[in-house]
Amino acid sequence: MAPFSKEPSIPGKVVRATSRAGVGGGAILIGLVLFFLFRGFGPGGTGSSGSGTGSEENPGDQSMITKSEQSANNSKPSLAAPDKVRGGLTDDEKKALSGDILTVLIDEHEYLLQLPGTPDPIFRPTPLSRIVELATIATGDANGIKVRILRRESARASSEQQLITDLAHKGIRQDAVVMPSDFVP
Q1: Percent of the chain beyond pLDDT 70?
Q2: Which pLDDT does position 161 carry in this prediction?
């Protein structure tokens, strides 16, 4: 007797074809989402091509001035680079070092130095290499804390780790750095 062969039923063919189409469509959809995400579109993106990060090592960038500082000055903010003063520190860097602890805010891949002295915190973009140099100058508090790292929700873990690694290379141990678990708005 001849072996019995059975052709797949029509509903089986439809299910198999629909499954293949669904997998292919899902792969294309995931590809498009990743494309737009890495091109800068989407939540936190710039809306233009590129990675969406600014140049952290370019000292010619405009300074970030908060509204409270602008109203305190009652004038337009100066976009010129700050003048160097004696000792190789700018006025902003001297303000940042006036306290015992150097406070740094990480926003995406950008590092911002906190300038104390006003009720609302003021942050200035600063290159990572300069922050590390300033951290070595910081006196530290009674507990030996030299650097406080604040983070926004958009802060990248790679930026946090890079800062901690660079501080360690300059001799600032992990126990001299504090990073609160909550985010800064």
Answers
A1: 65
A2: 94
Label residue 24 by pLDDT band (50, 70, 90): confident
Cβ-contact 13, 22 below 8 angstroms: no
- What CA–CA distances, in Å, run from 132 to 11, 54, 104, 138? 67, 19, 10, 10
Q: What is the DSSP letter of 83?
A: P
For residue 58, which phi and psi values (nearest 5 degrees)?
-90, 105
Q: Determine which helix (DSSP H) or strand (DSSP E) holds 105, and give its type and residue range.
A: strand 102-107
Neighbours of 138 (CB within 10 A): 20
What's the one-letter identity of residue 97? L
Cβ-based burial of 74 (10 A; exposed 0-12, middle 13-18, buried ≥19): exposed
Q: By the 8 A CB rule, do 110 and 123 touch? A: no
Among residues 176, 99, 110, 105, the alpha carbon closest in space to that of 145 is found at: 176
What is the C-alpha to C-alpha distance for residues 155 and 161, in angstroms, rounded to an integer? 11
The set of residues, in sequence order, having a beta carbon less than 8 Å from that of 92 and lying 6+ positions away, is 82, 113, 115, 124
CA atoms within 13 A on the CB side of 111: 27
